[in-house]
Design a protein that fits this description.
By secondary structure, this protein is of the alpha/beta class. It has 15 helices and 16 strands. The chain has helices at about 15-25, 30-35, 50-55, 70, 85-100, 110-125, 140-145, 165-175, 180-190, 195-200, 205-215, 235-245, 305-325, 365-375, 405-415, and strands at about 5-10, 35-45, 60-65, 75-80, 100-105, 130, 155-160, 225-230, 245-260, 260-270, 285-290, 295-300, 350-360, 380-385, 390-400, 420-430. α1 (about 15-25) packs across α13 (about 305-325), α6 (about 110-125) runs parallel beside α11 (about 205-215) and α8 (about 165-175) crosses α9 (about 180-190). The chain is elongated, with a radius of gyration of 24 Å. Pfam families: ACT, Homoserine_dh, NAD_binding_3.
Length: about 425
Amino acid sequence: MMMKNVSIALLGCGTVGKGVIDLLAMNKSLIEEQLDTAISIKKVLVRDLKKYKQMKLPKNIAITTDFEDIINDDEIKIVVEVMGSADFAKNCIESCFLKGKSVVSANKDLIADYGIPLLKLSQKHNVDFQFEASVAGGIPIVRPMYSSLNSNAIEEMTGILNGTTNFILTNMAQQGISYEAALTEAQKLGFAEADPTSDVGGFDAARKIAILATLGFHSELTFKEVSVEGIEKVTQADIQHATEMGYVIKLLAVAKQTNKGISMSVYPAFLQKNHPLASVGGANNAIFVHGNCVGDVMFYGQGAGSLPTASAVVSDVMNVITHFNNQITGKRRYLWREDKKLYSTSRIMSPYYLRMIVDNAPGVLSSISGIFAESNISIRSLIQKDETKEIAEIVILIDSSPNGLVKKALKKVESLDCVRKVASAIRVVEV
């Protein structure tokens, strides 16, 4: 009996697109053996034809700059979207659904903004829409949210979801270098873009946690509902203080679901060194998930890169083909609750590490302590660090307090004449 064949097309042929081509070539026999189906890349959509002619793609792949060449080709059953542009990609994917083509996407921006409407549209037209690679590269986490862990009420997800920031913070700790030097090194090695704002500002991680929370909490959540803080203000002094106190600093993406509602946040945090996420170094990603029955589970691995991300993309393609072969395309049901209830992150309780530059004068510490006392915030410890005749650095740990209340108190502290600046205010996560 002749092996079946499925023709696919790629929208984009950058790092991930080329990885898909290479992976399908590397693991061709293994993939065909599992599916009893051959996968042929028929066409690739690119912006600059000359650039990709020099890439030396396999001769059987046609390169085009016209999306109509793909959408009007009835032989193409699956379209793999790896472009990165949200609005153009959305239009292309909607057109694919209308033509009865299933879609696999690695586009976190697209999924974070339009994921649920696109899923609903795919179901309306009885096609598949899968996006494992949109979060944490090659780490399998999207499908477990609606498959392996779907017997649980997911209560919390905490992740290191951005490799660039993790690389920067790891190097600051290991090499004793400044934030600026670590960022420059990340850019030289290709871990950070020329404009790193999306990564270091926390926005990339925010999009990813919005996707996971949408799936894990069965609610239509968006990137705009995530409270975001980046790592731009983390200094070598903060890294050193964290080390001395038994912590590491990580950029965390956190989503929680309680009877009070859903909250989503991204922020730098002091993690105790015995926390499972504390040892995640370099550009690696990890997601720590708590379900009401399974307890704690952790997913760890390479969160980006050509072949790791292609691994997730091709896995989705194989899943779609399995649905074709079993005649269940577009039949997966998803649960989306209409009564979405959000819980303000300003009300979430956290201990805080605070670093301040103040006048080296009598009465300074009592003035600061007085403001915290008036705000019902308890000081756990207060240490005076480096000092000169005129100024001193003080480090304060405060007990768990509502985030909004801490920010209000810090505004009052910063208004004191004796306080030069509140240099750092970083949440503390304790096991």
